[in-house]
Amino acid sequence: MALKSNSYGDATTLPVILIHGMGSASTAWQTVVPELSKTHRVITVDLPGHGATDLPPGTDMSPKALAEYVIETMDALSIEKAHVVGNSLGGWTALEMAAAKPERVASVLGLAPAGLWLAPFTARYPGTAIARNLASGLKVVSPFGLKYEWGRKVGFGDVSPQWRKYSYQLCLDATLALANSTGYYPAWDALLHRRFDSVVSESVPVTIVFGDSDKTLPASSCQEKTLAPKHVTWLNWESCGHAPMWDYPERVIAEIEKLTK
Q: 246, 31 in Cβ contact below 8 A?
């Protein structure tokens, strides 16, 4: 399955592929794409049932399958090799790409990657339905409410201590992406009873970033370093939530630049 994608920039160096998280969309990368595309060709993708990509019946939404879809998208775009950046489910997907096809992945930057939990989930994370229903309910009023600080706090206060600096457009796009995501529940169900347990070749540099204020994948249960590739560079950022590219886009770009040199 080739995913819907967007291409930015025309640099001749290896492309950078950005993979969003569950219930999100390619618009999640709006904080880094404008600057990053000045020096790199940047590709954003929408996972099945997210953004502009449909969810055909019976689509396998497991991270290993998602990794294959991204690789098939690379084939469709005639991209032989790329640097891969992923957030949350997208981070897990990026790691699976590196494990399955190390010759196609130049490096991986995992921003709060899912799958590094001590015990696999056996049921959807508490509050999953509440978050989706809230987003669906806000879809009608969000263009108005998100213009105000109180509206952004309701939707993003638990996402990060940095929520006050989130733009109106970022909050609106994120709310609509979650509300319209037909792949949200299928993706959640595909994570149950699984965790990242693949082996990534040392030929693929890997950096993982977690924020110290990540309430979605907390350090107490979802940041198990022994499950990460042995050669990983592991970073913890202060006052950072579950979407480091929203909290510190310039630092994310800097980490990408380190891996792409």
A: yes
The residues near 177 (Cβ < 8 Å, ≥ 6 apart) are 20, 23, 24, 25, 27, 28, 50, 51
In which region does residue 58 sit, left (phi positive, over 0), alpha (psi from -120 to 50) or beta (all else)?
Answer: left
- Cα 178 to chain centroid distance, Å, stands at 13
Burial class, 232, CB count within 10 angstroms (exposed 0-12 / middle 13-18 / buried 19+):
middle
Q: pTM (2 decimals)? A: 0.94
Distance CA 246, CA 52 (A): 21
Output the tens digit of pLDDT for each of the chain's 261 residues: 999 999 999 888 899 999 999 999 999 999 999 999 999 999 999 999 999 999 999 999 999 999 999 999 999 999 999 999 999 999 999 999 999 999 999 999 999 999 999 899 888 765 555 455 555 555 545 676 788 888 788 778 888 999 999 999 999 999 889 988 999 999 999 999 999 999 999 999 999 999 999 999 999 999 999 999 999 999 999 999 999 999 999 999 999 999 998
| C-beta atoms surrounding 75 within 10 Å | 12
Q: In what order do the strands lie in the sheet with 105-111?
A: 4-8, 42-46, 16-19, 82-87, 105-111, 206-211, 233-237
- Rounded CA separation 113/228 (Å): 10
